[in-house]
Specification:
Largest sheet: none
Distance between the termini: 27 Å
Strand content: under 5%
Order of helices and strands: HHHHHH
Number of strands: 0
Number of helices: 6
């Protein structure tokens, strides 16, 4: 699982434009490595569809690593909502309560 998380981390660096200096963060807390930029993007309305789609992918990666964490699920639910995946968002957000 850790190797998978590290591979996803490299992909996330490419998607988010973060430098390799973030590799220490990726190794120390891979869930937050994916969730933090996703949440920073989706928590406000008015973002670009491309940014929301990137955040959605990052949120999905975080959920793969922490499938029962309600904060991570919340990020995914909001990302699904922002990308027009309304029925999926509803089901995901139900899991956070």
């Amino acid at each position: 699982m850790l190797k998978f998380a590290l591979a996803l981390g490299i992909s996330a660096e490419w998607l988010t434009g973060q430098s390799s200096s973030s590799s220490a963060v990726r190794r120390s807390n891979p869930v937050q490595f994916f969730n933090s930029p996703a949440w920073s993007t989706v928590r406000f309305a008015g973002g670009s569809p491309q940014d929301y789609e990137t955040a959605f992918v990052l949120a999905e990666c975080a959920v793969l690593l922490a499938p029962r964490d309600f904060l991570i699920l919340n990020t995914l639910g909001v990302a699904q909502f922002r990308t027009g995946r309304y029925s999926e968002a509803r089901e995901t957000l139900k899991k956070t309560t």
